[in-house]
Amino acid sequence: MPLAMNxxxxxxxxxxxxxxxxxxxxxxxxxxxxxxESAIDAAKAGAAVVHCHVRDPETGAASxxxxxxxxxxxxxxxxxxxxxxxxxAGMGGDLIFGDVESPLPLNAKGTDMAGASERVSHVAECxxxxxxxxxxxxxxxLGDYVMTNTPSMLRAMAKxxxxxxxxxxxxxxxxxxxxxxxxxxxxxLIEDPVLIQLxxxxxxxxxxxxxxxxxxxxxxx
Length: 221
Prior knowledge:
Number of domains: 2
Distance between the termini: 16 Å
Helix content: 25-40%
Number of helices: 7
Strand order of the largest sheet: 1-2-5-8-11-12
């Protein structure tokens, strides 16, 4: 059956993005004040949703500090804008291995692993309307970085988000992630209608070509 275009569109602004975006552009906001101001500006320009990560104010490195999320959240909510707040919950599942002959021990400088409760603690504190749920494990971009999200971890995080009344936004980087999203929905761990973001063109997940896009669309719950 041919797909019809839905012209009722909305814009989401990812204010900082994930990973080392700071080294790629001097315009990426770093401090909670800068991140909140960028989110507010995006809302005034027409964004319906702002997707926020936080950064270490001193280094610009990605952070999952609850106090930084609280400041960003409070600043956005105190502004005179009507915008849906979407906080990332993707951090805390980062594995970086050693070299190919001695992959263990892990690279302690880059590895960041946390339990389900810790990974959503800022969500429980700030209660955004939406938070992300990266629905699978993959070799992520360059180097030996693996984004890890095991089935048990995803089930636990999904339940915590739903119990908090926060809508999980499934971030699907490949078709298998959509398959597991269907499983979460069938188990009642995420509610209908399931909210999906198709993350394409990120090495080494789903490539950004039309055939893959249609396969992703046809597998959305």
